[in-house]
């Protein structure tokens, strides 16, 4: 091999070595390690709307994605059984009220007049019986009539006296109406029937499903016409004003993630927008969440902690399910 060829190979090899050396130097100077990240997920308060009574979905008043206010009617149930019970309760209340009115009012005017006339009639008969007894008593004292006649006249007088008292009592009862206890019992029946109406009425109101919070309808479960049971969920409402981020962090990576700490997070879905988050809750996720098992002496089971952090300010565009990243 000629000296020129050997010299060319040496120069080429030397050049390659120099290039590799320069690349290594530049890489060492300008290379920055990729920061390790932990990933969390945004969550929000979610409330299920359900009814106390069974029925069929008659109509939805909102769709998924609609915003509702607290107290808005979102769906209507058709429950014929509840309406039938409500009509029965109303009829029972009306019947109890009629009986109570009768007890409070007492007898009719015609009945009062009849009892009064009967009393007056017995008063007249009593007056005649009293006069007859007085005359017979005088004759008896003068030995004109026998004791038998006198006893008969006295017995007739006493009988008429009892009849007059009975007729008077009948008139007083017709005039005064029912006894106090009867009136109270009738009023109690009215209150009982009214309570039944209110109870069934509350179930009737439950056929109109109301949103318990202000928020966004995130999901509807049944379709119009489907039967739903007591307590069956009909739809969900998201409260986007009450949001937080949950991180599952290995304990040796917790670092500055301590109670009350404020740190910076990044939201990829919002062009890596920076947000300030405050740690409000930390919880051990249990042994089932161990990161790795112990293998040799000196190692330990690294537990995973659930860290809940709340944005210090409202983040526009942040929605449940979006990822939030934190650099370690």
Summarize the structure.
The chain is 44% helix and 27% strand. It has 328 residues and is an alpha+beta fold.
Task: Explain what this protein looks like in three dimensions.
By secondary structure, the protein is α+β, with helices and mostly antiparallel strands. It contains 5 helices and 12 strands. Helix 2 (80-105) runs antiparallel to helix 5 and helix 3 (109-141) runs antiparallel to helix 4. The longest helix has 33 residues, at 109-141. The two termini are 59 Å apart.
- Tell me the CATH superfamily of the largest domain: Efflux pump adaptor protein, beta barrel domain
Helical stretch tally: 5
Write down the domain tally.
5
Q: Cα-atom Rg, whole angstroms?
A: 49 Å
Spans of at least 5 consecutive residues whose pLDDT stays below 50 are: none
Would you give the CATH topology of the largest domain?
A: Elongation Factor Tu (Ef-tu), domain 3
Helical content class: 40-55%
Helix and strand arrangement:
Layout (H helix, E strand, L loop, with lengths): L2 H28 L6 E14 L4 E6 L6 E2 L4 E6 L1 H26 L3 H33 L5 H30 L3 H26 L2 E3 L4 E6 L6 E2 L4 E18 L11 E6 L5 E12 L19 E8 L11 E5 L1
Antiparallel strand pairs: 1-8, 1-12, 2-4, 2-7, 3-6, 4-5, 6-8, 8-11, 9-10, 10-11
């Amino acid at each position: 091999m000629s000296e020129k060829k050997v010299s060319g190979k040496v120069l080429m090899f030397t050049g390659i070595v120099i290039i590799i050396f320069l690349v290594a130097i530049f890489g060492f100077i300008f290379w920055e390690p990729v920061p390790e990240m932990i990933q969390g997920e945004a969550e929000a308060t979610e409330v299920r709307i359900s009814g106390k009574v069974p029925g069929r979905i008659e109509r939805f008043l909102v769709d998924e994605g609609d915003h509702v206010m607290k107290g808005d009617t979102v769906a209507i149930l058709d429950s014929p059984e509840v309406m039938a019970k409500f009509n029965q309760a109303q009829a029972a209340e009306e019947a109890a009220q009629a009986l109570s009115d009768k007890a409070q009012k007492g007898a009719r005017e015609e009945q009062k007049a009849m009892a009064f006339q009967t009393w007056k009639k017995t008063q007249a008969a009593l007056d005649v019986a009293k006069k007859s007894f007085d005359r017979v008593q005088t004759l008896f004292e003068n030995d004109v009539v026998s004791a038998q006649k006198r006893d008969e006249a006295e017995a007739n007088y006493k009988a008429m006296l009892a009849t007059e008292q009975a007729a008077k009592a009948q008139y007083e009862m017709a005039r005064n109406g029912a006894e106090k206890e009867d009136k109270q019992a009738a009023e109690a029946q009215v209150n009982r029937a009214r309570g039944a109406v209110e109870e069934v009425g509350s179930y009737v109101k439950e056929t109109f499903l109301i949103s318990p919070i202000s928020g966004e309808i995130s999901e509807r479960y049944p379709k119009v016409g489907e039967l739903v049971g007591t307590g069956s969920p009909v739809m969900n409402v998201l409260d986007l004003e009450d949001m937080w981020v949950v991180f599952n962090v290995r304990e040796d990576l917790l670092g500055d993630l301590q109670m009350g700490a404020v740190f910076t997070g990044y939201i990829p879905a919002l062009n890596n927008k920076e947000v300030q988050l405050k740690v409000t809750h930390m919880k051990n996720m249990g042994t089932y969440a161990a990161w790795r098992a112990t293998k040799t002496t000196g190692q330990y089971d690294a537990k995973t902690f659930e860290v809940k952090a709340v944005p210090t300010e409202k983040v526009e565009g942040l929605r449940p399910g979006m990822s939030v990243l934190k650099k370690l």
